[in-house]
Design a protein that fits this description.
This protein has about 1050 residues and is an alpha+beta fold. The protein is built from 34 helices and 30 strands. Its EC number is 7.2.2.3.
Length: about 1050
């Protein structure tokens, strides 16, 4: 326990030392299998090509899913290939034509048609289309053209934003394996990965991306990182000679296979292509994402299937399948449409259904007044601007609606690797044989030896990280520490260098971490070699069977002969130590203590050897990773290694970890303050996950017993039924050893609890959960193409803090949507009240006189209100935006407070507009009264009605301008709206100036009103009103009364803690 190869101390990134995940003895037949497959018996013919005899004819059909259960000769026979020479080019060309190119089509992106359809798939747009058609039908071409322009604006802005986002995603897609090495007709050549076919013989080396699913033929010290496919954080050792008996062995346990999109981290191998393109395991997941879903039995035939498809299509078109806001607005639009029809019927009924042209126009005016024509355009533009802000925050929004949706998140399910952590190994704990302890803290870059601080027995040391060689000043009175650093630096094949802009590294992640640690003290490998005191004599490379590495170096300057430097897994080195049982128990105890902190533990040892034994230069040995290199080393034999690695002197233990990102703890705390629960779903071991979770604050730093119900291993969670999961008081905060199925079940469990969740992921195996979650977030740097395709958002920096930024931006957008919804709906309610009561305003012929002309209504809705609403959409986030619980998803954007406020303010605005109209129309009524034919154009008799209409229009405009500033906050007074920033009696001026776009929108609305009222021809012929004089007193009186009503209502809400005033701010203790 606690050793480097023990699953109990698994870290994040691939180690150079690792044991099998399971006993090889359980996987291999007991000795030579006396009874091969009952249906297959593979042999090699004289020409070197495998042949096969079958018990049943059907057995000759090759199934890639069972390749791991077949021997290499059997696979060669079924695929008609050769294990040494592969197939020839002509056969490869024939098979390429038969099977097609080796391309996974999962990450195909969205078509232009799909992006375009997304813009019109909502009820509000459809209602506007109906309104536009009616306007053209009655000959009101100006109104119809204006609404058509609004619809076009919404489509264009939304299309451009989604298209740009899709282009960004496509740019993030990485080529999985552009080229590969293949053996054809005995000759090695490099071909495009697309040209691979089943039966090809592929060569793999360190750093290669596996181009297809391969059945390994030969392997030397082979390890492959399959994290993107299986979620396994550590590389898996591969053995070509293993034959598995069970066809249903999990992918991560098929140690004789190499799967497409995985990466070779150590060794070399050759393998036969078993499947390509969509037939690979990666392709199967991609195909799952491309499918449109399955139908149930009752939908499989006839009219039921047609009806089910039509129903699904209708829900999509109406916007009922989407985010909570999309669904709310879809239902709201249908409600408005029904209300518009009802109001038109009321108008027609007043005229006893004698629908003349004027009655029809008036009815449509009332119907248009209830529909916020600019809402969809303002929403689209505000969201598009939000996505641009998020792009600067390293978040690419693939769908405009996703930004609003992420603001309602109640739970975040985050991966650990590279999201909460840095994704690279760091050696941050050292324990030496004399009890000396060294720790590295606050490191911000895993390759930078100057980052962070060094603590030696609790005291802070200065950093060296120089190229001047070892620094004695940094190693006071610690000869053992010098020996430890010397060992990890020399027994190491990685390189760490500094470029002009940053530090870079090449080699195994664990060796890089150890080399960086040595460099912190100025004792890196290059510095030691430059000093002239060390010369490599021999190297015994790491091997998965022995789990250790040893180098022999001469120490010429000190005259100490030669030393053997060894590092490896504790259980591999402990038996080789020249130490008492008591000392070994102490070492094991310390290793287990380090392991309990989530660290991976390496043991470091050394001893003096006779340099004369290694004086003869040898030709070539196989170095780490299977590369061949010349050196003054001896040919490795079992006897040499056994001798060199016996009776070693223990030096110390090194604890390695994929450390949390510096900003992760603060981001998690911010989520908890916002009432958001953060869950860690990782493929790592439970100890590693628990240690990181405690360090960043997902788990409280209490005893393990107190956290027992918050920490689970995925296998235990998977055994629970849905009912048992639902009976749990809360879902576990840490789930270790997660599989794709586990993540999907977690999402489903959250949905049953009515939670709204974000799921992050980078691997192909994460794609189903990303698609299932409410908002899927993929990693842009290290994520797979298929994961990006399934996601709604992509993080370009793979940083958890960016998710929190997205949530904050989503909450800001949600608040602002409520603000401009309130503003737009107040205007609509006021106009409906005005026009309905205005039915009683009759001219001399008994015809109802419009209190507002149709164009005045459109001007108020589309020109004045639109820019004011857009300004509200650009409001900064409120100071407490991340200190309050998520909004109620069941209620959505139309909260009780918003509904009550819109009716209070709308009624007040409508009443004051009525008062303005009646004050002028009946306060200065002449012998002609309201005139006649005044709805159609100007006549001398229409002077009073035209002046009354202008007064009403001016009053409505001024009240809309005031509402824009009052709607900045639902409860705070306009005269003390930002007490955190501004105070004093003049703070109102700084408040209105704070949002400059809104200030200019209000100013423009004020200025442009005057030419509309006073310009000849424009006023009478177009807007059907006339210039006013003394009536401005009526307008200003209306503004004063309206402001007093709003301020009084807000004061009542504050006094009785209604609406937003009742929201409890979440504190860190609550979270």
């Amino acid at each position: 326990m606690g050793t480097e190869s023990d699953l109990g101390v698994e870290g994040q990134t691939e180690p150079p030392i690792r044991s099998l995940n399971r006993s090889v003895a359980n996987l291999l037949p007991d000795g030579p299998d006396p009874s091969p497959s009952p249906t297959l018996a593979g042999t090699f013919g004289t020409d070197g090509r495998a042949s096969i005899t079958t018990t049943f004819e059907s057995a000759a059909i090759f199934a890639p899913e069972s390749a791991h259960t077949l021997s290499v000769p059997e696979v060669c026979a079924l695929l008609d290939t050769d294990a040494e020479n592969g197939i020839d080019n002509s056969e490869a060309a024939r098979r390429l034509e038969q099977h097609g190119p080796n391309k996974v089509e999962g990450a195909r992106g969205l078509s232009l048609w799909t992006i375009l359809l997304r813009q019109v798939s909502n009820s509000l747009t459809l209602v506007l289309v109906v309104t536009m058609v009616l306007s053209f039908a009655i000959g009101d071409y100006i109104e119809g053209a204006v609404i058509a322009a609004v619809i076009l604006l919404n489509i264009v802005v939304g299309f451009i934003q989604d298209f740009r986002a899709e282009q960004t995603i496509q740019a993030l897609y990485a080529l999985s394996a552009p080229t590969c090495k293949v053996v054809r007709a005995g000759r090695s050549e490099t071909v495009k990965a697309e040209a691979l076919v089943p039966g090809d013989l592929v060569r793999l080396g360190v750093g290669d991306v596996v181009p297809a699913d391969l059945r390994l033929v030969h392997s030397v010290n082979m390890s492959i990182d399959e994290a993107l496919l299986t979620g396994e954080s550590l590389p898996v050792s591969k053995y070509a000679d293993i034959i598995l008996k069970d066809r249903d062995v999990p992918l991560g346990d098929r140690t004789n296979m190499a799967y497409s999109a995985s990466t070779v981290t150590r060794g070399r191998a050759t393998g036969i292509v078993a499947s390509t393109a969509m037939a690979t395991e990666v392709g199967k997941i991609a195909e799952l994402l491309r499918s449109k879903g399955t139908t149930s039995d009752e939908e499989t035939r006839g009219m039921r299937r047609i009806f089910a498809r039509a129903k699904r299509g209708l829900r999509v078109v109406l916007g009922f399948d989407g985010t909570p806001l999309q669904v709310s607005l879809g239902k709201f639009a249908l409600l408005l449409f029904a209300l518009a029809i009802a109001l038109a019927i009321i108008v027609f009924s007043v005229s006893r259904f004698k629908v003349t042209n004027e009655v029809l126009i008036y009815g449509i005016c009332v119907a248009v007044a209830v529909i916020p024509e600019s809402l969809i355009a303002v929403l689209t533009i505000a969201t598009a601007l939000g996505t641009r802000a998020m792009a600067r925050g390293n978040v690419v929004i693939r769908k405009l609606a996703a930004l609003e949706a992420v603001g309602g998140v109640t739970n975040i399910c985050s991966d650990k690797t590279g999201t909460l952590t840095q994704g690279k190994m760091v050696a941050n704990k050292v324990w030496l044989a004399d009890g000396t302890e060294v720790s590295v803290q606050e490191t911000t870059h895993p390759f930078d030896p100057t980052a962070g601080t060094i603590h030696l027995n609790g005291e802070v040391l200065a950093l060296a990280a120089t190229e001047k060689g070892p620094s004695d000043e940094l190693l006071p009175s610690s000869v053992l520490l010098k020996g430890f650093l010397e060992t990890i630096a020399l027994c190491n094949n990685s390189t760490v260098t500094k470029s002009e802009t940053s530090w870079t590294a090449a080699g195994d992640p664990t060796e890089i971490a150890l080399q960086v640690l040595a460099m912190r003290f100025g004792m890196d490998k290059q510095a030691l070699l430059r000093s002239g005191g060390h010369r490599l004599l021999a190297e015994y490379p790491f091997d998965s069977s022995c789990k250790r590495m040893t180098v022999i170096c001469a120490d010429e300057t000190a005259g100490l002969g030669a030393c053997a430097f060894t590092k490896g897994a504790l259980e591999a080195i402990l038996p080789l130590l020249d130490a008492s049982d008591e000392q070994k128990m102490q070492i094991v105890a310390k290793a287990e203590a380090l392991a309990a902190e989530g660290l991976r533990v390496l043991c470091v040892a050394r001893k003096s050897v006779d340099s004369s034994i290694f004086s003869e230069p040898a030709s070539v040995v196989s170095g780490a990773g299977g590369s061949e290199k010349s050196a003054t080393v001896v040919a490795e034999t079992l006897l040499d290694r056994t001798s060199a690695e016996s009776r070693l002197a223990f030096v110390g233990l090194a604890g390695l970890q994929d450390p949390p990102r510096v900003e992760s703890a603060a981001a998690v705390k911010k989520c908890q303050d916002a009432g958001i629960t953060v869950h860690m779903l990782t493929g790592d071991h439970v100890k590693t996950a628990t240690a990181i979770a405690r360090e960043i604050g997902i788990l409280k730093p209490t005893s393990a017993a107190a956290n027992a119900e918050e920490i689970m291993v995925a296998s235990a969670f998977d055994r629970l039924t849905d009912a048992q999961i639902d009976d749990m008081p809360h879902l576990p905060l840490v789930l270790a050893r997660c599989s794709p199925t586990t993540k999907v079940r977690v999402v489903e469990a959250m949905h049953r609890r009515k939670a709204f969740c974000v799921m992050t992921g980078d691997g192909v195996n994460d794609s189903p959960a990303l698609k299932k979650s409410d908002v899927g977030i993929a990693m842009g740097l290290n994520g797979s193409d298929v994961a990006k395709e399934a996601a709604d958002m992509v993080l370009t920096d793979d940083n958890f803090a960016s998710i929190v930024t997205a949530i904050e931006e989503g909450r800001r957008l949600f608040d602002n949507i409520q603000k401009f919804l309130l503003h737009l709906l107040i205007s609509n309610i006021a106009q409906v009240i005005l026009l309905l009561i205005g039915l009683s305003f009759k001219d001399t012929h008994g015809i109802s006189v419009f209190p507002l002309s149709p164009l005045e209504i459109l001007w108020a809705n589309l020109v004045t209100s639109s820019f004011l609403a857009l300004g509200l959409g650009l409001e900064d986030a409120q100071p407490d935006v991340m200190q309050r619980p998520p909004h109620d998803l069941a209620i959505g954007v139309f909260t009780r407070e918003l509904i009550v406020d819109k009716f209070v303010y709308g009624t007040a605005m409508g009443g004051l507009c009525l008062a303005a109209f009646t004050s002028v129309a009946y306060g200065m009524s002449g012998p002609d009264g309201l005139g006649h034919g005044c709805n159609e154009g100007w006549e001398v008799s229409c002077s009073v009605s035209f002046r009354a209409r202008a007064t009403t229009f001016a009053t409505l405009t001024f009240l809309l301008l005031v509402t824009a500033w009052e709607a900045k906050h639902f409860t705070r007074s306009l005269f003390n709206m930002l007490p955190e920033k501004y105070g004093g009696p003049l703070s109102v001026f700084r408040t209105v100036w704070h949002n400059k776009f809104l200030f200019y929108a209000v100013s423009a609305g004020f200025v442009i009103m005057f030419p509309v009222i006073y310009l000849p021809v424009i006023n009478r012929a177009v807007f059907k009103h006339d210039a006013i004089t003394w009536e401005w007193g009526v307008v200003m009186a209306g503004v004063v009364v309206y402001t007093a009503i709003i301020e009084s209502w807000k004061a009542v809400k504050r006094r009785f803690k209604m609406g937003a005033a009742s929201l409890r701010v979440v504190t860190g203790g609550d979270a």
